[in-house]
Design brief:
- With 351 residues, the chain is mainly alpha-helical.
- Helices cover 73% and strands 0% of the residues.
- It is built from nine helices and no strands.
- α1 packs antiparallel against α2.
- The protein is rod-shaped, with a radius of gyration of 40 Å.
- Keywords: Signal.
Length: 351
């Protein structure tokens, strides 16, 4: 189990270290960028990290199919979604182990519940490891989202510069055409200026079209990463919830084990003290007098065969009930201290 936790943490750390910080490459002015402009967003390194996660059978756990309330996304379908299944499986296992504790009794219950408490603690550790892995993946996606938005802002600035250049070139072409019409004597010079301005306008228009395409690609990239970030946040919230529930179940199991130990010790102490023959005879005599007077018995020891005989003779069911020796106050107090409140805690109400 410990080796499995180590492999999970090493794989998640490898994913985080494999994502390069990435810097924006310089370009010549007014030239369209070729494919590969975003080296920092290459998914090859991220895929290598996910391949490490697949080697430890994270994908063998089925992802849940319950839809989330956040824009229809589902938990377990983001990158490393198998960690959610591990966390929920650990939480379910912890719950089943807590439920199994209630079938134990006496000293055997203490041994069984202590073993189940240790197993529940291991399940909680599994959920914590899954939460750590999901935290690393979430941090990587958040960094990619920030870098993508920075790239979008840069492309918008380049678009504004291209628009200004296109406007200036268009104005220059219009002025040249006006000079051609007004100044007939300088027609040759004006014609050359007009041709040059028209060529500049065509180049500026081409640059504007290329820049518009790059802005669209940058926006699409940012939108894709934002979608991945949303699903990763949903899975992170589900993983954290499962981890908290597993920790709570483990704590409850430990409390139950402590309570079982205290109860077993008190039961052994009570069963080891037997009344003397004088107390037994006095109790029998007092019980007979109380039954004849129809009075309830309080703290009077009565053998089982005599109590049944009194019930058969006088039909006094409550006499046997009132004759029952109470639980020692020390055992009751230690049991309630182990649980933490005055009433017996129902673990089913927690869920």
């Amino acid at each position: 189990m410990i080796n499995k936790f180590s492999l999970i943490l090493v794989a998640c750390a490898s994913v985080a270290l494999a994502i390069p910080a990435g810097t924006k490459s310089t370009k010549e002015p007014r030239k369209p960028r070729e494919h590969g402009y975003y080296p920092a967003y290459d998914d090859a390194a991220l895929d290598n990290g996910y391949a490490l996660l697949s080697n430890i059978n994270l994908d063998s756990h089925s992802a849940p199919s319950h839809p989330s309330l956040d824009h229809g996304y589902k938990t377990g379908f983001s990158v490393g979604g198998g960690l959610v299944a591990i966390a929920r499986g650990a939480a379910d296992q912890a719950r089943s182990q807590v439920a199994s504790q209630h079938s134990a009794a006496g000293q055997a219950a203490y041994v069984a519940k202590n073993t189940l408490a240790q197993s529940a603690a291991q399940s909680a550790a599994t959920a914590a490891a899954a939460l750590a892995g999901k935290q690393i993946i979430l941090s990587g996606l958040e960094q990619q989202s920030r870098d993508a938005h920075v790239a979008v802002d840069g492309e918008k600035m380049q678009l504004q510069q291209a628009q200004r250049a296109a406007t200036a070139a268009r104005n220059s072409a219009q002025q040249a055409m006006h000079q051609l019409q007004v100044v007939t004597a300088a027609m040759n010079a004006a014609q050359a200026t007009s041709d040059h301005a028209a060529q500049a306008a065509a180049e500026a228009a081409a640059e504007l079209a290329a820049q518009t395409t790059m802005v669209g690609q940058a926006k699409a990239r940012a939108q894709t990463i934002d979608e991945q970030l949303k699903t990763a946040r949903i899975d992170f919230a589900a993983t954290q919830s499962a981890s908290d529930k597993a920790a709570a179940a483990a704590q409850l199991a430990q409390n139950n084990a402590a309570a079982a130990a205290a109860h077993a010790a008190d039961s052994a102490a009570v069963s080891g003290v037997l009344p003397s023959v004088a107390d037994e005879e006095d109790g029998h005599h007092a019980a007979a007098i109380a039954v004849e007077k129809h009075e309830p018995l309080h703290n009077v020891y009565l053998p089982a065969e005599d109590a049944h005989q009194l019930v058969d003779d006088h039909d006094q069911g409550y006499v046997l009930h009132r004759n029952t020796l109470p639980v020692p106050a020390s055992g009751y107090a230690s049991h309630q201290d182990a649980i933490g409140h005055d009433e017996i805690y129902d673990y089913k109400g927690y869920y």
